[in-house]
């Protein structure tokens, strides 16, 4: 398939990279927690999380302390490779 490429963390906007680093340093957080830690707007954090989920770096889970919120965490593969996808590391 010519023209299609695997998107990686390097291809994402700075806000998504910041959200990745916040999750890397702090562990699982709710969207509200990410907003507080990153000092980004809620809308920007939502967009960044969508992009990170789209490339398989972030997982969304139920936050059992408050079921109205979701808990976001890095996938085990993202933790081990520092955010690089399998396709990017298999040179």
Can you characterise this structure?
- This protein has a single domain (12-89), classed as Winged helix-like DNA-binding domain superfamily/Winged helix DNA-binding domain (Arc Repressor Mutant, subunit A), CATH 1.10.10.
- The protein contains five helices and three strands; from the N terminus they run H-E-H-H-E-E-H-H.
- It has helices at residues 14-26, 31-38, 42-54, 76-81, 86-89, and strands spanning 29-30, 58-62, 70-74.
- It has a three-stranded antiparallel β-sheet with strand order 1-3-2.
- Strand 2 and strand 3 (70-74) form a beta hairpin.
- The protein starts with 13 loop residues before the first helix and ends with a helix.
Look at the helices and sheets and give the structural class.
Answer: alpha+beta
Q: How many angstroms does the end-to-end distance come to?
A: 19 Å
CATH homology superfamily: Winged helix-like DNA-binding domain superfamily/Winged helix DNA-binding domain
Which strand order do you get reading across the main beta sheet? Answer: 1-3-2
| Named CATH architecture | Orthogonal Bundle
CATH topology heading: Arc Repressor Mutant, subunit A
Protein name: MarR family winged helix-turn-helix transcriptional regulator
InterPro entries: WH-like_DNA-bd_sf, WH_DNA-bd_sf
């Amino acid at each position: 398939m010519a023209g299609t490429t695997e998107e990686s963390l390097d291809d994402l906007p700075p806000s998504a990279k910041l959200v990745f680093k916040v999750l890397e340093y702090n562990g699982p957080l709710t969207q509200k927690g990410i907003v507080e830690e990153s000092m980004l707007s809620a809308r920007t954090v939502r967009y960044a999380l969508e992009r990170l989920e789209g490339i398989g770096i972030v997982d969304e889970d139920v936050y059992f302390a408050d079921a109205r919120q979701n808990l976001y965490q890095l996938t085990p593969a993202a933790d081990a490779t520092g955010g690089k996808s399998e396709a990017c590391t298999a040179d």
